Amino acid sequence: MTLGTAQFGLVQYGIANKVGQPSYESVRDMIALAFEGGVNCFDTAPLYGTSEELLGKALRELKIAHQVTVATKVTHMAEDYSSVRVVNELVEESVVNSLKTLHLEQLPICIFHREDNFRFIDALLKMKEKGLVRYVGSSVMTPETTRQIVTSGLADAVQIPTNLLDHRFTQPGILAEAKKRNMAVFVRSVYLQGLIFLPDEEILPEHEVVKPVLRRIKGLAAEAGMSVGELAVRYVLGLDGLTSVVVGVEKPDQLEENMALIAKGPLEPDLHRALEEAVPDLPDVVLMPNKWSKRMPDAKPQRR
């Protein structure tokens, strides 16, 4: 398990979040609880509000910064820069800012926040050559670009969205190719920002198509004597080639529940296949939160 920290730095992250942003004391306590429970990887980003700052402060106060792996991201660059010098400067600025904010001498993992920024990989590889970053790669959104990144030979890690509703990345053999290349694969969006938990009356009109699918999934969960949350986590754990599951939480009890679910391991193969057969190809407006009308708040990188 990798503990995702977007919820720690943003006022409200996730379509089903009714708790809001936790206090720093709560964040520190959850990080301590996670570490004591065997979690040794934490996912953050400059665009997650104050996430890097809070994580860095907590790891330093708990004196565990050098016992864990921190995965962060390069601040998103929206422009198509023609100057190599400018790109190098922007990537280095992002890396140096993250190092300062996280109180680290080297970023264990630093990936691009968006797949379209992978075209700037040479700049991030320079940070690797300087010893400021150990492993590089990209967070991704589409299978086509992910395959290109995996087969490029330039990435050490990718972070893919995969869950009970989203099988786009498991079907075309991307995980098998990454495994063959000894790449780390982090799976995020296991709960699709909480969409899989919503009752029918709280599902947005644009997501109407997902209602019968969620009913089938909930039926399979009931037959197996499991919660939908357990089904979601253990389904992802059954993917061959997975390195770690990124799970975000707002409260300590959610953290304890997720650690307990992951400890149970993957689903039985028959149930895993039944879940895949129960879910049709769904439109991007369901699978991609950046296309939702109710989406996570935008955040600005924290400058130091």
Structure description:
By secondary structure, the protein is of the alpha/beta class. It has one domain: Alpha-Beta Barrel (TIM Barrel). The protein has helices spanning 6-9, 24-36, 51-62, 84-102, 121-129, 143-151, 174-180, 211-224, 228-237, 252-263, 269-278, 284-287, and strands at 2-4, 41-43, 69-74, 107-112, 133-139, 157-161, 184-188, 244-248. It has an 8-stranded parallel β-barrel with strand order 1-2-3-4-5-6-7-8, surrounded by 5 helices. Strand 6, helix 7 and strand 7 form a beta-alpha-beta unit. Helix 2 (24-36) crosses helix 3 and helix 8 (211-224) runs antiparallel to helix 11 (269-278).
Instruction: Categorize the overall geometry.
Output: globular
- Count of domains: 1
Q: Structural class, judged by helices and strands? A: alpha/beta
Described by strand count, sense and barrel closure, the largest sheet is: 8 strands, parallel, barrel
According to CATH, what is the class?
Answer: Alpha Beta
CATH superfamily: NADP-dependent oxidoreductase domain
Instruction: Indicate the radius of gyration in whole angstroms.
Output: 19 Å
CATH architecture field: Alpha-Beta Barrel
For the biggest β-sheet, the strand order reads: 1-2-3-4-5-6-7-8
Task: List the uncertain runs.
Answer: 296-304
